[in-house]
C-alpha cells in the first residue's frame, strides 16, 4: 500500500502536505496564525497530523502523543511592542504635592503585557516595589505614590515595559516640578501704618520663586478688584494707586507657577484736611515785663 494523503490541522485550518521526493518527507508551506500563541493554554498552537493510505487506513498524531507530542506545539510570537501612556503628572506640570500620585497605562492587544517587566524610574532611582498594577484587558493600569517626599524642583519619571513575547515598549518619560514653598514677597513701600497727605501712593517691592518663576503679582486697594502688576525680569514691581480719604488697606499678593501665594498688607491713612485752630488764650494778659505767661491753644484735626 502507499500513502494517499497527509494533512496538518492548525488553528482550525487543514492543510494538505505533498511529498518531497528528495527528502522523502511530506511538506507544506503554511502561513502562521496572525496572533501570538502566548495567551493559549500551554502558550502554543496545537498541531495535529493525519495520514491515510490508499487502503483507507488512518493514523493521527497530536500534542498528546507521548513521542511526537512535543514536536506538534507551534509557538507563534507577535512583533508589536506594548504602548505606554503616562497620565499623571503631565509634562511640565507644577505641583505643590511632594508625594504626587504617578499614574500610567501599558496596553498590548496580542500576547499581553508581562507585569514583571513594568518598571518605574524616578530620576535615577528604580522603583522595585509598591507599584499597583491593575489588569485591564491584556494590559495594566498602574499607579505609584512615593513613600518619601520628593524634593522641590524638577523630576523625571520614566516607564518601561515588555510583552510576553519579549517586545520592548518605547520608553515614555515626563519631566515635572514640585514646588511646596511660596514665593518671597518684599514690599518696600509704602510703610505700614503710613499717614500721608498725598493721594498718590506708589507700591513697590520685589518677588521671586526659585522653583517656579515667573511670579505673578496683584495689588488690591480697599474693596476694589485686584489688578495685575507687571513684574520685571529682576523681580521688581511698581504700581501707583490713588488713595481714598481716611483709612486705606492695600493688599499685595504674589503667586508662583505652582499656585502657592504670599500676601502682604499695608495700612495707609490719607489725611488732606488741615488742622483747625478754634481758640487761643494768653494768661495772664496783660503781664509784667519779664514775667511768664501761659499760652493755650485749642486745635482739632
Describe what you observe in this structure.
This protein is an all-beta fold. It has three domains: 3-74, Immunoglobulin-like, CATH 2.60.40; 83-178, Immunoglobulin-like, CATH 2.60.40.1220; 184-270, Immunoglobulins (Immunoglobulin-like, Sandwich). Helix content is 0%, strand content 50%. It has no helices and 25 strands. The strands form six sheets. Strands 1, 2, 3, 4, 5 and 6 form a six-stranded antiparallel β-sheet that branches. It has a five-stranded mixed β-sheet with strand order 8-15-14-10-11, with no helix packed on it. A hairpin with a 5-residue loop joins β19 (216-221) and β20 (227-229). The protein starts with a strand and ends with a strand. The mean pLDDT is 95.
Unreliable stretches: none
Number of domains: 3
Figure out the total of helices: 0
If you compute it from the alpha carbons, what radius of gyration comes out, rounded to the nearest whole angstrom?
42 Å
How can the largest sheet be summarized?
6 strands, antiparallel
- What percent of residues are in strands? over 45%
- Residues in helices, as a percent range: under 10%
Q: What's the order of the H and E elements?
A: EEEEEEEEEEEEEEEEEEEEEEEEE
Shape: rod-shaped
At the fold tier of CATH, the topology name of the largest domain is Immunoglobulin-like
Q: How far apart, in Å, are the first and last alpha carbons?
A: 134 Å
Please write the CATH class name of the largest domain: Mainly Beta
Look at the helices and sheets and give the structural class: mainly beta
* Overall pLDDT score: 95
- Second-tier CATH architecture of the largest domain: Sandwich
**What is the β-strand count?**
25
Amino acid at each position: 500500500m502507499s500513502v494517499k494523503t497527509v494533512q496538518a490541522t492548525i488553528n482550525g485550518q487543514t492543510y494538505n502536505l505533498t511529498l518531497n521526493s528528495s527528502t522523502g518527507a511530506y511538506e507544506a508551506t503554511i502561513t502562521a496564525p496572525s496572533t501570538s500563541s502566548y495567551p493559549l493554554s500551554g502558550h502554543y498552537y496545537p498541531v495535529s497530523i493525519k495520514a491515510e493510505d490508499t487502503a483507507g487506513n488512518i493514523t493521527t498524531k497530536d500534542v498528546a502523543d507521548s513521542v511526537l507530542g512535543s514536536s506538534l506545539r507551534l509557538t507563534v510570537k507577535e512583533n508589536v511592542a506594548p504602548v505606554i501612556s503616562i497620565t499623571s503628572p503631565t509634562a511640565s506640570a507644577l505641583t505643590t504635592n511632594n508625594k504626587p500620585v504617578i499614574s500610567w497605562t501599558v496596553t498590548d492587544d496580542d500576547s499581553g503585557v508581562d507585569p514583571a517587566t513594568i518598571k518605574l524610574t524616578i530620576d535615577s532611582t528604580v522603583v522595585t516595589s509598591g507599584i499597583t498594577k491593575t489588569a485591564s484587558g491584556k494590559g495594566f493600569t498602574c499607579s505609584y505614590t512615593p513613600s518619601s517626599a520628593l524634593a522641590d524642583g524638577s523630576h523625571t519619571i520614566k516607564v518601561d515595559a515588555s510583552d510576553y513575547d519579549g517586545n520592548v515598549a518605547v520608553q515614555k518619560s515626563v519631566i515635572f516640578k514640585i514646588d511646596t514653598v511660596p514665593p518671597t514677597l518684599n514690599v518696600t513701600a509704602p510703610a505700614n501704618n503710613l499717614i500721608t497727605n498725598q493721594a498718590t501712593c506708589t507700591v513697590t517691592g520685589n518677588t521671586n520663586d526659585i522653583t517656579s518663576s515667573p511670579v505673578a503679582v496683584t495689588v488690591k486697594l480697599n474693596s476694589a478688584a485686584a489688578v495685575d502688576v507687571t513684574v520685571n525680569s529682576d523681580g521688581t514691581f511698581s504700581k501707583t494707586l490713588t488713595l481714598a480719604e481716611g483709612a486705606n488697606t492695600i493688599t499685595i499678593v504674589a503667586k508662583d507657577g505652582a499656585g502657592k501665594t504670599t500676601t502682604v498688607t499695608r495700612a495707609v491713612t490719607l489725611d488732606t484736611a488741615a488742622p483747625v485752630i478754634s481758640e487761643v488764650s494768653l494768661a495772664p494778659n496783660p503781664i509784667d515785663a519779664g514775667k511768664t505767661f501761659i499760652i493755650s491753644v485749642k486745635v482739632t484735626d
